[in-house]
Amino acid sequence: MTSSQPALAGTTVVTLGQARDEFRRSPAASKLSAEDDARLRKFVTWCGVSSAIETIQPFKIQQFLEQQLNTSSPPRSYVPVLRAFFAFAHERGLISTNPMAEVHAPRGSGSTRRIASPAPRATAARGTDVVYVSRGQYESMRAELERLRTEERHRISRLLHDAIKDGDLSENAAYDDAKMRQGLLEARIRELEQKLRNVELIEEQDRSGAGVTVGSRVRLQELASGDEIEYQVVGPEETDPRAGKISHRSPVGTAIMGKSAGDEVEVAAPGGTVRYRIVAVD
Questions:
Q1: Can you tell me the distance from the alpha carbon of 126 to that of 129, in angstroms, rounded to the nearest whole number?
Q2: In angstroms, rounded to a whole number, what is the distance separating the alpha carbons of residues 47 and 186?
């Protein structure tokens, strides 16, 4: 693989389509099959050819792979070409970090076609895909999605239309900026759509037991100092440590979930392990 900079280096925004074309001309793609090329084309089309490559985050790649579970080409078959593509993009400076470093093929993604069943989907819905939010946050997310789908899409469309009227698109900064904005907009829309499909309201969680769950208010005592602190366990969307709201996925949140008053827990911190006693759960 050559170390010389590609023609794309130095441009304001590099789209997925541009990066794919540069990759296909590189030695890195010489060993890929026609099937791999088709898989990469499908991925780029799914994300949006004009989407800025820098906006493609690990969760987006993971979503794409999971959607291939019930197709004739299983998720695992996409991993090699996506790894090669993003490694190329990272090496050439088209992206600051390689998102594939945090991506794994979904379970059940072997060579045989997976038959969907209600049980696995129900399990997933109760796992890491669940988005816990308050009713107010849920309404805020729905309102944002509606605004992005209507007002913002129309605004970006007008920007593109005006930029195209200026003529040559190869050196048209306004057009490049509008396409970048469009890529970011569509990425945010897809993110909100995915989250809203997996929403569970904090107000509707069953807190009849004594254990800590999402929505619980918990008073903790640090055993070494005796100091007490109170938190409310919320979803990542509403995390605000300054307001005493911590995510159930944070180190403290993970340690106390399911625990009861009187239990002691250990939390890994930068300065070492910290031990807490759960004083009260409301």
A1: 7
A2: 9
Domain boundary among 203, 236, 263: 203
Cα 139 off chain centre by: 21
The boundaries of the domain holding residue 23 are 16-116
Its pTM stands at 0.51
Per residue in 154-166, pLDDT (tens digit) is 998 888 888 877 6
Separation between Cα atoms, residue 116 and residue 136, nearest integer Å: 33
Question: pLDDT, tens digit, for every residue of 51-83?
Answer: 888 888 888 898 888 888 767 778 889 999 999
Name residue 138's amino acid.
Y
Give the span between the Cα atoms of 118 and 127, in whole angstroms: 15
Nearest to 246 by CA among 208, 277, 214: 214
Tracing tokens 């993971």 back to the chain, one arrives at 62
